[in-house]
Structures are given as structure tokens and as C-alpha cells.
Design brief:
Elements (H helix, E strand, L loop, with lengths): L6 E5 L4 H9 L5 E5 L9 H11 L3 E4 L6 H6 L1 H22 L2 E7 L22 H16 L3 E6 L2 E2 L6 H9 L4 E5 L3 E2 L2 E2 H16 L9 E4 L6 E2 H11 L6 E5 L1 H4 L14 H7 L6 H9 L1
Length: 290
């Protein structure tokens, strides 16, 4: 008789990462999508009922309000979704003894370092978005014993417009693009992140390794760049040579929310545990864009 597959519930399943997870996790688990249409994470009773019915072994909580300037304009929504919504997931998971894997962000850091942030570095978010995501992390650490927090950055992939799509779209219309040159982080291919998450989940599912995989991880494609460098590489990969990239500063953009200037993440903890270093952001961008 075939052994029953463990159930993994994915919130934010219609998003960029949610779509990649359904492709990347394979057939070893019973995967259940939970989009905003299925259940708003801010509705505690609804979330409790879903967990009681499905009793997931593990939940990947990727649902979030990620509009950085939108969060600054509407902090009530930011904290309702990113903090209290996460608390609702945590409460439900406690009742069903489910493991929580939470997707967080490089924006929990202030961005004042000159080298990539490690997991143990102090978090000092400078925006409402970063603060609301950090509050979600704090609820998880305070209330759960079995959890994984994965911080990532600059996600790109299929199913949603991202920086790559924007650059290519603008390059078809203009001969010069103004791109910020002083903001640094790590582009991350959603397919690569989904594969890495799969390795972490497989580790948790291994009786001899499971306890070693709980905790906080930074997972991005390796290396880092500025938005300016990123845009130049995108055009290079696509063979577009008749469009100039003009460097500008963060101040020129007049964003409503502050951004960390340097928020690249150090992946060495993940690579050391799994023995699978993340490939470079250049390799990932080239595969996706070409």
C-alpha cells in the first residue's frame, strides 16, 4: 500500500513564488493552493477552519502585501496582512501542529553594511513594509518551535511583471533609461528559490536531519548588483545595444518609502547545510531572459 503524501499548504499561491513552488516541489507532497480569493489571511476564523479541515503537515506562508510605497501610504493594511495575517497562520498552525515556513525580505535590514547581511545580523527596517514583515518574523519566533524563516530579495520569474519585464518594455519605447545606481541587492529567480525551499522541506522531512533545518535562512541567487548593473546586464543578455542606461540616485526617484541602500544577503548558511550553493544571479537572469 502506497504511503500517504504529506500535505503542504501554500498561501499566496497565485503569486510569483507560489506558482514556482507548484512546479518546483514535484510530486513528493500533496500540494494545496490557497490564494487570496480562497482565504484572506486577515480573517482569523476562516484560516482556523481551513487548517482544521486540511490539517497540513507544513504551510508555506508567502502571502504578503509587498507594495513598498503602498505599505507606507497604508500602514494599517501592511500590518494587517504582513503581521496580523502571519499571526493568524501561526495560531492555526499551533492548533494543527503544522510546521510554518515563512517568506520574508531583505527589507528587514537598514542597508548600512558594506558586505552581505548574515542571518544573525540585527534587523533595523527603515520602511513600513520592512517593519511589518519583521513583525511577522517575531510572531513566528515567539510562538512556534518548528519553523523556517527564509529571507529573499528582488524576485523575478514567470507569472508577474518584474524589474526585468519593466526594463525590456521601456527599452522598446526609449533610447535611454534612467536607473538607480546606488541601490544594491541580489536578484533571485523564483524557480531557483522554489528548488531551494524544496531542499529545506526535504531536510525537515528526513528523520535524521529535520531538527537541523529549523531556523532562519537567507536564500537568493549568489552575488549582488545595483539596479543600474542589473539593467545593463538584462540588455546585454537580450542583445540590445542601442539603449543607454543613465545612472540616477535614490533621491531622484522621490519614493514615498525609504529603501535600504545595500541589502544583499549572505547565502553561506544555506549552502553549508545543503551542500548546494545558489548559482549566480547572472546565470539565473540569462536562463530566464533568453
Amino acid at each position: 500500500m502506497e504511503k500517504a503524501k504529506k500535505t503542504i499548504l501554500i498561501t499566496g499561491a497565485s503569486g510569483l513564488l507560489g506558482r514556482a513552488l507548484f512546479k518546483g516541489l514535484g510530486t513528493g507532497y500533496r500540494l494545496i493552493r490557497l490564494s487570496h480569493r480562497d482565504a484572506d489571511v486577515t480573517r482569523e476564523k476562516r484560516i482556523l477552519r481551513i487548517f482544521a479541515s486540511l490539517r497540513p503537515w507544513l504551510v508555506i506562508h508567502s502571502a504578503a502585501y509587498t507594495d513598498v510605497d503602498g505599505c507606507e501610504s497604508n500602514p494599517e493594511k501592511a500590518f494587517a496582512v504582513n503581521a496580523l495575517g502571519t499571526l493568524n497562520i501561526v495560531k492555526a498552525a499551533k492548533k494543527t501542529h503544522s510546521i510554518v515556513l515563512y517568506l520574508s525580505t531583505d527589507y528587514v535590514f537598514a542597508g548600512r553594511k558594506k558586505s552581505p547581511y548574515r542571518e544573525e545580523d540585527a534587523a533595523h527596517p527603515v520602511s513600513i513594509y520592512g517593519k511589518s514583515k519583521l513583525k511577522g518574523e517575531e510572531f513566528i519566533r515567539k510562538l512556534l518551535k518548528r519553523y523556517v524563516i527564509i529571507r529573499t530579495s528582488w524576485l523575478f520569474g514567470c507569472g508577474r511583471s518584474t524589474f526585468i519585464n519593466t526594463v525590456l518594455k521601456q527599452a522598446r519605447k526609449r533610447r535611454a533609461l534612467k536607473i538607480i545606481a546606488e541601490k544594491y541587492s541580489s536578484p533571485t529567480y523564483a524557480a531557483d528559490l522554489a528548488e531551494a525551499i524544496g531542499r529545506v522541506i526535504d531536510g525537515i522531512n528526513s528523520k535524521s536531519w529535520q531538527d537541523k533545518f529549523y531556523g532562519t535562512y537567507h536564500i537568493t541567487n549568489s552575488g549582488f548588483c545595483s539596479w543600474y548593473d542589473y539593467a545593463q546586464y538584462i540588455l546585454q543578455v537580450k542583445g540590445i545595444s542601442n539603449v543607454k542606461i543613465l545612472p540616477i540616485s535614490l533621491a531622484d526617484m522621490k519614493f514615498k518609502a525609504r529603501r535600504p541602500v545595500f541589502s544583499a544577503l549572505d547565502n553561506s548558511k544555506y549552502a553549508g547545510l545543503t551542500g548546494k550553493p545558489m548559482r549566480s544571479w547572472q546565470e539565473a537572469v540569462k536562463e530566464f531572459a533568453v
